Amino acid sequence: MAIKKSETGNRRVRKATSVAPPVVTEPRQAVAPSSKPAANNIEEEIRRRAYELYLERGMTPGDPGQDWLVAEQQVRAHHAG
Asked: What Cα–Cα distance (Å) separates residue 39 from each residue in 43, 46, 80?
């Protein structure tokens, strides 16, 4: 509760107002899980696989773009079949 002073100096107590929950007019629809992963998850998998390729190469300098393309091909092939 909040305590507030009036103009005359007397203390007044203001009661907290209650907030009603929102009214739902339509029931929520269940979202069916997708059999395909989201695009950002695939991108994360590609990024991880490209890094694995770098590690498999012994962390020697190489072409990050080529690592990405190989990783992308491998990840997409994995998800396609």
From this structure: 6, 11, 14
Contacts 24+ apart (CB under 8 A), 18-27: none
- Asked whether the beta carbons of 68 and 53 are under 8 A apart, the reply is no
SS3 at position 62: coil
pLDDT at 71: 96
Instruction: Give the pLDDT score at 36.
Output: 59
**Predicted TM-score (pTM) of this structure:** 0.53
43 vs 67: CA distance, rounded Å: 13
SS3 percent helix, strand, coil of the chain, rounded to 5, is 45, 10, 45
